[in-house]
Design brief:
The protein is an alpha+beta fold and about 300 residues long. A 4-stranded mixed sheet has the order 1-2-4-3. A two-stranded antiparallel sheet has the order 5-6. Helix 2 links the parallel strand 3 and strand 4.
């Protein structure tokens, strides 16, 4: 059973993750409601923005380290809000301040012969200092509860990322499979291409000689030279190897950058194959490969 749990944990940990995620968690501590909301998008490095009450600034570095250790990479916005569930204690109206404003308004109204406002209460409650917000102080237990809430939000985000990663992986493997299928379509045209090159050289040599005769040995040597120069066997082999390596790497943890490097190598082989092809049908296949590869590169940018 223990071995099964270890295997399940390792398998879960090694699944690819998207960098897009969202999570929100809430907890109650005494009369305080703690809310942590986290949003993530793709980025080449960790780009973390934290918004929290000033009274919690002293713990911001610990909160940042917690988020960075869990999410690793991405553009991350985390908002921590603290609200009081006891509204009677969250805000207080200072009666002495209100009374002072009222006396001054009445005095000025009498002195200047100005009619008092029809909605004097609304005017008073807009004056500064009327609402007295008590200072907040948070002990270690409260900060620990905030950290626990952050952990819960991070777990939700991680689950979101894993789910999105599974969708991305399915799409990526499908597109790599399409590239391999297109690669298989090259072979029939490759055989035809050799014969086309031979016929073209033969025609050109016949037109360049006065009597239509030429050195067949020299012709064979030149033909072999051009066929070797335009041979795409190595590109096909390497492209297939890169595709297999890409599929294998999809199960690695934090595979995004590695998959990006592999897709670049795939692109080099496809480009070389296209430049050497010298055959219209192969060129069309190469264009289709490039189209699928661009979609792969776009998706890889979203993988952790």
């Amino acid at each position: 059973m223990n071995n099964y749990r270890i295997f399940a944990h390792q398998f879960f940990f090694r699944m690819i993750r998207s960098m897009t995620g969202y999570g929100i968690a809430e907890n109650i501590y005494n009369t305080k409601k703690i809310t942590v909301e986290i949003k993530t998008l793709n980025s080449k490095q960790l780009d973390l923005i934290v918004k929290l009450p000033n009274e919690l600034r002293f713990a911001e570095l610990d909160f940042r380290n917690k988020v960075g250790a869990k999410l690793q990479r991405g553009k991350i916005d985390m908002v921590i809000t603290i609200t009081d569930t006891n509204l009677d204690q969250s805000n207080h109206i200072d009666g002495e301040v209100v009374a002072s404003y009222l006396r001054q308004i009445r005095q000025i109204s009498e002195q200047l012969n100005i009619a008092p406002s029809a909605d004097l209460a609304a005017l008073l409650f807009r004056m500064p200092g009327v609402f007295n917000i008590p200072e907040q102080s948070y002990d270690e237990d409260f900060v620990a509860k905030v950290g626990e809430t952050i952990d819960q939000a991070l777990d939700i985000v991680d689950g979101f990322r894993i789910k999105e990663g599974a969708t991305l992986k399915k799409d990526l493997l499908h597109r790599v499979e399409l590239i391999v299928g297109l690669l298989d379509q090259v072979e029939p045209y490759e055989k035809l291409r050799h014969e086309t090159i031979k016929q073209r050289l033969t025609k050109n040599l016949s037109e360049l000689t006065t009597d239509g005769q030429y050195d067949e040995n020299r012709f064979e040597a030149e033909l072999i030279y051009y066929l070797e120069k335009l041979d795409i066997t190595e590109e096909k082999v390497r492209l297939r190897q890169h595709c297999n390596y890409f599929n294998e790497s999809c199960d690695e943890d934090q595979a995004g950058k590695k998959l990006g490097f592999i897709s670049q190598e795939m692109g080099r082989e496809i480009n070389t194959l296209g430049s050497k092809a010298n055959e219209v049908n192969i060129q069309k296949i190469v264009v289709k490969m490039k189209d699928e590869l661009e979609k792969i590169k776009e998706q890889v940018c979203n993988i952790l």
